[in-house]
Amino acid sequence: MARFCPPPQEGNGRLCRKMALPMLEAQGIAVAQGRRILIQGLDLTIPRGECVGLSGPSGAGKTTVGRALACLHPLAGGRLTLDGQPPGKGLWPVQYLHQDPLVAMNPRWTLDRILREAGPPRDDLRTALGADLPAERFPHELSGGQLQRLSILRGLMARPRVLIADEITAALDPVSQALMWRVLLDVCRATGMGLLAISHDDALLARISGRSMAIA
Ligand SMILES: Nc1ncnc2c1ncn2[C@@H]1O[C@H](COP(=O)(O)OP(=O)(O)O)[C@@H](O)[C@H]1O
Ligand SMILES: [Mg+2]
């Protein structure tokens, strides 16, 4: 899992100029599955503190692009930078949140262990997300909604610079969906975290993101 990389501090001339740069920038990227090129020449910028939407029909390659931005899938072309720096040997602080959180969790770990591994406790976020769940349970003992709340909490506890949220609220009821996005947008505003909201739901993206792009 991507870990926290401290954001540049204000008050230093060099770093202040960095603050003005777009945070995550993909220039002309291509992604493939095997030999099949799915996307070619995609330009995408996720500025600091903003939510950008990515839409497209099922099978278009949204998940593959999201995973590539988090360096979980190789680029077949183009350039990816965070504050002007390409991925290096260190941790890449771009966190990918899976549509189906169960596949991204160790089934043998309790919730307590899963969250302890993510970072220092965040009781404020846990409460805001409604993720106060029994610590001794295992992931398969949770409902889909509880799992997604846990997954979002875990993702935020790693304090990523950018969060890639892949259809994370597709299976939630409208009230829970609105709550999750409100919390995520609050974190963006408060910490400068960038957010890529991947969804096939254009109405949702229009509500939560200032800017969206579609892939066909
Ligand atoms: N692990 C994989 N191996 C081979 N093909 C894959 C794999 N994952 C996805 N694909 C294929 O790549 C295409 C894009 O998938 P995906 O990125 O999941 O699209 P989306 O998220 O837009 O539905 C689809 O045709 C899908 O079947
Ligand atoms: Mg997908």
Q: Would you identify the regions where 5 or more consecutive residues have pLDDT less than 50?
A: 1-18
Total strand count, please?
8
CATH top-level class:
Alpha Beta
Number of domains: 1
GO molecular function: ATP binding
InterPro entries: AAA+_ATPase (IPR003593), ABC_transp_ATP-bind (IPR050319), ABC_transporter-like_ATP-bd (IPR003439), ABC_transporter-like_CS (IPR017871), P-loop_NTPase (IPR027417)
Domain ABC transporter: 24-216
Protein name: ABC transporter ATP-binding protein
Topology readout:
Blueprint: H1 13-20, E1 24-33, E2 36-46, E3 51-55, H2 62-69, E4 77-82, E5 94-97, H3 111-118, H4 123-128, H5 144-157, E6 162-166, H6 174-191, E7 194-198, H7 202-208, E8 211-214
Parallel strand pairs: 3-7, 3-8, 5-6, 6-7
Antiparallel strand pairs: 1-2, 1-4
Helix pairs in contact: 3-5
The site of adenosine-5'-diphosphate has 11 residues, from helix 2.
What does this structure look like?
The protein starts with 12 loop residues before the first helix and ends with a strand. The strands form two sheets. A five-stranded parallel beta sheet has the order 5-6-7-3-8, sandwiched between helices. The chain is of the alpha/beta class and 216 residues long. The protein has helices at residues 13-20, 62-69, 111-118, 123-128, 144-157, 174-191, 202-208, and strands at 24-33, 36-46, 51-55, 77-82, 94-97, 162-166, 194-198, 211-214. It has one domain (48-74, 84-214): P-loop containing nucleotide triphosphate hydrolases (Rossmann fold, 3-Layer(aba) Sandwich), CATH 3.40.50.300. The longest helix has 18 residues, at 174-191. Bound molecules: adenosine-5'-diphosphate and magnesium ion. Residues 33-34, 38, 56, 58-64 line the site of adenosine-5'-diphosphate. GO terms for molecular function: ATP binding. It holds the Pfam family ABC_tran.
